[in-house]
């Protein structure tokens, strides 16, 4: 007689599975509300805990991951994006854009000038943390790095201006009249020193020296000094003006003398020319009259000396336009010059 052991085993197994399923079914029906609650609670926990595992880094942030029960991972810098982390991790955020620091008003920096005055400088600058410097900053200063940057900037400004002990470098007048170059020099000092100490970027163009507060007593003293300088300058200008007037009057007198001399010389030269011209003209007239007289004598056939002398005398008398010549009955010449 052959016995199929496999069929017997399978039959027993099926019976046992059916029994187990029935027991499970009875258990589920008996505790269905409890199991439903556990399932619902599990789903709720998933819905709550999964979103808590997502962390968002904004466009203006850097971040490190930190184990709440361990260390901070500074080897990897998280940038903009969404990250899924276990619940025992959170993130430490840092600004990835420019941060502003202002020394203004009561927080302005007291500095000394080379000429012994104490003034207050108001200044603002913006700095940015490169991602490559974030690890070093966090390891050295933690999350309080901003205060360290502020204190270092104060020290840089004081060292640039100098102190009453070490000796100041710049006169007060330069802070007033040469602001552009002083602001540029301070910016270069901040750029160099803060990068050396923290590895942060402080562009020169993002450093702005605003206004310099001068104490009222110093303003009054400085104003009086300026007024006195202006008065002295005005007095000097008056003296210069009087000197110019005197020199101008001297020049006018010299010019007048030279002008009179030139005019008189020209007048004398003109009179001399006129006299010479008249003399020359008279000589010509005399010469021509002589020639004309000789021609007349020859034409009239006057040859005797008495007749010649008589003719010359008549012509000489005729030269005077005021003379009137008359002949009497004896043919004698009568001259009337009235």
Tell me about this structure.
This protein is of the alpha+beta class. The protein folds into 4 domains: 18-52; 54-95; 99-214, Band 7 domain (Tetrahydropterin Synthase, Chain A, 2-Layer Sandwich), CATH 3.30.479; 284-336, no CATH class. Helices cover 58% and strands 19% of the residues. It contains 8 helices and 11 strands. The protein has helices spanning 5-30, 32-52, 134-141, 145-161, 172-177, 179-198, 216-300, 305-318, and strands at 54-57, 61-67, 72-78, 81-84, 89-95, 99-103, 109-112, 118-127, 207-213, 324-327, 333-336. Strands 6, 7, 8 and 9 form a 4-stranded antiparallel β-sheet that branches. The protein has a 3-stranded antiparallel β-sheet with strand order 3-2-5, with helices on one face. Strand 2 (61-67) and strand 3 (72-78) form a beta hairpin. Helix 4 (145-161) crosses helix 6. The protein is rod-shaped, with a radius of gyration of 63 Å. The model is unreliable at 1-6 (pLDDT under 50).
- SSE ordering: HHEEEEEEEEHHHHEHHEE
Bin the helical content.
Answer: 55-70%
CATH topology of the largest domain: Tetrahydropterin Synthase, Chain A
User: Could you name the CATH class of the largest domain?
Assistant: Alpha Beta
- How many H/I helices? 8
Total strands: 11
Q: Can you identify the CATH superfamily of the largest domain?
A: Band 7 domain
């Amino acid at each position: 007689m052959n016995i199929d052991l496999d069929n017997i085993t399978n039959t027993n197994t099926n019976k046992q599975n059916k029994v187990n399923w029935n027991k499970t079914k009875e258990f589920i029906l008996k505790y269905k509300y409890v199991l439903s609650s556990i399932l619902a609670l599990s789903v709720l926990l998933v819905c709550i805990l999964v979103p808590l595992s997502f962390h968002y880094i904004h466009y203006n942030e850097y971040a490190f991951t930190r184990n709440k029960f361990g260390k901070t991972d500074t080897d990897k810098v998280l940038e903009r994006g969404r990250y899924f982390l276990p619940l025992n991790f959170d993130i430490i955020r840092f600004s990835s854009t420019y941060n502003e620091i202002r020394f203004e008003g009561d927080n302005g920096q007291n500095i000394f000038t080379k000429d012994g005055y104490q003034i207050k400088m108001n200044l603002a600058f913006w700095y940015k943390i490169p991602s490559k410097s974030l690890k070093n900053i966090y390891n050295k200063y933690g999350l309080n790095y901003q205060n360290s940057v502020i204190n270092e900037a104060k020290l840089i400004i004081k060292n640039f201006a100098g102190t009453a002990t070490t000796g100041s470098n710049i006169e007060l007048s330069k802070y007033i009249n040469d602001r552009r170059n002083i602001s540029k020099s301070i910016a270069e000092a901040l750029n160099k020193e803060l990068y050396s100490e923290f590895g942060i970027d402080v562009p020169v163009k993002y450093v702005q020296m605003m206004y310099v507060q001068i104490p009222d007593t110093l303003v009054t003293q400085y104003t009086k000094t300026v007024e006195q300088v202006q008065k002295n300058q005005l007095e000097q200008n008056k003296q210069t003006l009087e000197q110019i007037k005197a020199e101008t009057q001297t020049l006018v007198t010299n010019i007048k003398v030279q002008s009179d001399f030139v005019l008189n010389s020209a007048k004398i030269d003109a009179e001399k020319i006129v006299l010479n011209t008249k003399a020359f003209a008279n000589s010509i007239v005399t010469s021509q009259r002589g020639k004309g007289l000789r021609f007349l004598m020859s034409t009239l056939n006057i040859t005797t000396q008495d007749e010649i002398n008589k003719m010359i005398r008549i012509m000489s008398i005729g030269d005077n336009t005021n003379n009137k010549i008359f002949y009497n009955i004896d043919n004698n010449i009568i001259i009337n010059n009235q």
